[in-house]
C-alpha cells in the first residue's frame, strides 16, 4: 500500500507539473476530464503554482475605446491575440481599466444622474440653420445656478482569462468624480480598494474623505476625513502592499506636489519627489521596487528612473538614465514595466525599451483607435473573491 500510495503521489505531481504549464483556457477545458482533475485545478495550491509559472511570461493588456461595437470592450494582449468580450461589461461606455494584479483587473465606470452647475448667462444655446447659415440666439432660460451634481461609481474586479466578474457593493453618491486605488498584499488575491471623494460638511466646508473595501470582509467601511486626495485613479501603482498616487499642486494644479501612499493597515503618509528637476513623471513597479520614470529636467530628450530607498526620509536613488531617440518624451502619456522592459505609450503608439540592450522598438498593436493605458498582465485562475 505504501508503494502504491507513493506512486500515486508521484503521478499526481507529474500531472500537476504538466497542467500548470498550460494556458488558462486549456485548464478550464481540462476541468471537465475528471473529478480528480477538477479538484486538482481548483485547489488553492494549484492556483498559486499556476500564477508563479504565469509570472515568468508577463504581457501587456489594454482595450480599444473606439471599437465598432460601442457596447463591447475587448482585452487585447500585445502578441495580437484578442480575448472574448469582457463578461458583464457590455453597455458601459465609460469603463476605465485602473490596475492589473495577479491576473485580476479592476475596472470602474460612473453611473447616476449628473446635473451641471451652469451659470444662467450661458444657458442660451444657439439655433443654427445650415442652409442660411443663420444663428439664432434663444432667450435666456431660468437661472439654475446651484443645482447639485451627483455621481456614483461602479467598481468591478474581473478575471478575463476565466470570464469571472465581481461587482463590488455600491458606495454612496458623491458630488465629484472619486479617485481610487487598489492595494494587494501577501495573499494571492487578497486586496483592498481605497476610494477618495470630496464632500461638503455641515458648515459648507469641502473636505476629503476615504472609504475602503476589503476582499476578506466583502464590504466597505469609512475611514473619515483624510488630508489629501490623489490626482488620478488610473496612474497609481501598488508595490509590496503599499499604494502610491501623485497629488496635484495646489498652486497651479498642473504639477506634482508630492506622492500620497497608504498601506494595507490603512496608514497614510506622504513622500517628496526627487530634489533634482523632473518632468512628466510616472509611477511604476520595477521588479518589486517603487520607482519613478521621468523626463530629465535639465538634459532634453533624456529619461531617468528613480528608485525609492527610504520611504520615511524620501530618499531617492537614480538607477537608470538614457536618451529617447525614437520619439519625443513629451508625448508619453503613461509607462508600464515588465521585467527588464519598459513600455512608453503615447496617444496611439507603443514603444518598448529594453534595459539590457538599451534598444528601442515600436510595438505593433493592430488597433487604429484610442485605447486604455497598457498594463502588465499575467493569466491566472484566481477568483475575484478572496481565496483562503
Summarize the structure.
The protein has 388 residues and is mainly beta. It is 11% helix and 39% strand.
Explain how this protein is built.
The chain has helices spanning 2-19, 24-30, 35-41, 44-54, and strands spanning 59-62, 76-77, 96-101, 104-111, 126-129, 134-137, 152-159, 164-167, 179-184, 191-200, 206-214, 219-226, 237-239, 242-248, 256-263, 268-271, 278-286, 289-296, 302-310, 315-323, 334-338, 341-345, 350-354, 359-363, 375-377. It has four helices and 25 strands. With 388 residues, it is mainly beta. A four-stranded antiparallel β-sheet has the order 3-4-7-8, with no helix packed on it. A four-stranded antiparallel β-sheet has the order 9-10-11-12, with no helix packed on it. Strand 21 and strand 22 (341-345) form a beta hairpin.
Question: Mind telling me the C-alpha Rg?
Answer: 24 Å
The count of strands amounts to: 25
Describe the global form. Answer: globular
Helix content: 10-25%
List the helices and strands and how they pair.
Layout: H1 2-19, H2 24-30, H3 35-41, H4 44-54, E1 59-62, E2 76-77, E3 96-101, E4 104-111, E5 126-129, E6 134-137, E7 152-159, E8 164-167, E9 179-184, E10 191-200, E11 206-214, E12 219-226, E13 237-239, E14 242-248, E15 256-263, E16 268-271, E17 278-286, E18 289-296, E19 302-310, E20 315-323, E21 334-338, E22 341-345, E23 350-354, E24 359-363, E25 375-377
Antiparallel strand pairs: 1-2, 1-25, 3-4, 4-7, 5-6, 7-8, 9-10, 10-11, 11-12, 13-14, 14-15, 15-16, 17-18, 18-19, 19-20, 21-22, 22-23, 23-24
Amino acid at each position: 500500500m505504501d508503494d502504491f500510495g507513493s506512486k500515486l503521489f508521484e503521478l499526481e505531481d507529474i500531472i500537476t507539473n504538466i497542467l500548470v504549464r498550460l494556458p488558462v483556457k486549456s485548464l478550464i477545458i481540462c476541468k471537465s476530464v475528471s473529478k480528480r482533475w477538477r479538484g486538482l485545478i481548483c485547489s488553492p495550491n494549484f492556483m498559486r503554482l499556476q500564477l508563479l509559472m504565469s509570472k515568468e511570461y508577463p504581457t501587456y493588456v489594454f482595450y480599444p475605446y473606439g471599437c465598432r461595437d460601442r457596447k463591447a470592450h475587448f482585452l487585447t494582449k500585445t502578441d495580437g491575440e484578442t480575448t472574448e468580450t469582457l463578461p458583464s461589461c457590455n453597455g458601459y461606455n465609460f469603463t476605465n481599466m485602473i490596475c492589473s494584479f495577479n491576473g485580476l483587473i479592476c475596472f470602474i465606470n460612473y453611473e447616476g444622474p449628473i446635473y451641471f452647475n451652469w451659470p444662467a448667462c450661458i444657458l442660451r444655446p444657439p439655433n443654427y440653420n445650415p442652409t442660411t447659415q443663420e444663428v439664432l440666439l434663444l432667450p435666456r432660460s431660468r437661472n439654475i445656478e446651484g443645482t447639485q451634481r451627483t455621481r456614483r461609481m461602479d467598481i468591478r474586479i474581473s478575471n478575463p482569462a476565466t470570464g469571472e466578474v465581481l461587482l463590488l457593493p455600491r458606495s454612496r453618491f458623491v458630488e465629484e468624480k472619486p479617485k481610487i486605488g487598489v492595494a494587494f498584499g501577501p495573499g494571492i488575491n487578497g486586496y483592498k480598494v481605497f476610494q477618495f471623494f470630496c464632500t461638503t460638511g455641515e458648515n459648507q466646508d469641502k473636505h476629503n474623505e476615504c472609504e475602503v473595501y476589503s476582499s476578506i470582509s466583502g464590504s466597505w467601511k469609512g475611514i473619515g476625513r483624510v488630508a489629501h486626495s490623489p490626482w488620478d485613479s488610473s496612474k497609481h501603482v501598488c508595490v509590496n502592499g503599499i499604494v502610491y498616487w501623485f497629488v496635484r499642486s495646489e498652486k497651479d494644479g498642473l504639477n506634482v506636489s508630492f506622492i500620497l501612499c497608504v498601506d494595507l493597515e490603512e496608514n497614510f503618509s506622504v513622500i517628496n519627489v526627487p530634489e533634482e528637476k523632473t518632468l512628466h513623471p510616472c509611477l511604476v513597479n520595477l521588479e518589486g521596487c517603487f520607482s519613478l520614470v521621468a523626463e530629465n529636467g535639465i538634459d532634453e530628450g533624456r529619461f531617468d528612473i528613480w528608485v525609492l530607498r527610504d520611504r520615511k526620509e524620501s530618499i531617492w536613488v537614480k538607477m537608470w538614465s538614457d536618451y529617447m531617440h525614437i520619439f519625443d518624451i513629451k508625448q508619453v502619456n503613461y509607462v508600464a514595466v515588465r521585467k527588464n522592459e519598459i513600455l512608453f505609450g503615447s496617444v496611439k503608439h507603443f514603444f518598448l525599451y529594453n534595459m539590457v540592450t538599451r534598444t528601442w522598438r515600436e510595438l505593433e498593436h493592430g488597433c487604429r483607435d484610442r485605447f486604455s493605458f497598457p498594463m502588465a498582465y499575467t493569466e491566472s485562475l484566481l477568483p475575484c473573491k478572496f481565496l483562503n
